[in-house]
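Quick start: read one record
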Amino acid sequence: MRLAVIIPNLHSPVIDEVIAAVLAQADTALEIWVVGQDCYGKIPISPRVHTIVTPEPLYPGAARNLGAERAEADIFVFLDADCIPQPGWLSALLGAWKSYPNAGAISGAMLPQSDTLIQHCDQIASFHEHLTLHPPVERKSLASFSLLVPRTVWQQSGGFNSCLRHTEGLDFTLRLRAQGWRL
């Protein structure tokens, strides 16, 4: 099984930490695709890290689709450029997928961390259903900050809506659910 982590990036100041955290818990069967722009020059050089620099900023869904089109993997893990995976994140996602191989998508949980109270409250309000304090259960929709999707499901769904500025993960997973996939 080949695995690709696809990260839409628009000048994330922590993209190097995100990539390092992914590489620290992955074997060599993993490829990372970073799609977008990096004005800070923080994307590390590695044989497993592929960068697609876009001439203009892309919405996250468009960047995710571009990475998925280029990746040669059976499983995609879409990860936001400001989400630093905790140790065990990847094995937990893959373990959940092995437990539910007919799922259309599986989401990771979020442990909010931010520099300000306002950012922290925004993370809790925006992702309250996806916080680490909730048990893993089937959901009506998922967010795309940490989302495992088999390639065949992504292809059958038509991918993310590349015109949406926000909520592309909600749109994507609602379409998967309408197609009969479990989340």
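The mean pLDDT is 90.
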